[in-house]
Amino acid sequence: MTETLNDILQIAERWRAEGRAIALATVVETWGSAPRPAGAHLVIDADGRFEGSVSGGCVEGAVVAEAAEVIETGVSRVLEFGVADETAWRVGLSCGGRIRVFVEPVS
């Protein structure tokens, strides 16, 4: 099941109330046959726990790793994944698409 934005925001609100440091990842652009549409979300805590999906499992691990630094530094970043970039052999979209994901700290 893919969570809606409302579901993700409720989870984020609950985690913040529990005192967890969190980040929100949002698909902001897709090309080709990316598995999740623009607007798909993932909420991540500082311990690497997450809910939601930005790629159906293709790049969530890489997004979670980057989110840890975003949480630590408080600096947002844009991540890009796909079969035509230097990360293709580490992480990639099996469907051949590309996605751009904005990761921001939530305070």
From TrEMBL:
Protein name: Xanthine/CO dehydrogenase XdhC/CoxF family maturation factor
Record PANTHER family: ALDEHYDE OXIDOREDUCTASE MOLYBDENUM COFACTOR ASSEMBLY PROTEIN, MOLYBDENUM COFACTOR INSERTION CHAPERONE PAOD
Lineage start: Bacteria, Pseudomonadati, Pseudomonadota, Alphaproteobacteria, Hyphomicrobiales
Protein origin, superkingdom: Bacteria
Domain spans labelled XdhC- CoxI: 15-82
Pfam families: XdhC_CoxI
Species the sequence originates in: Aureimonas pseudogalii
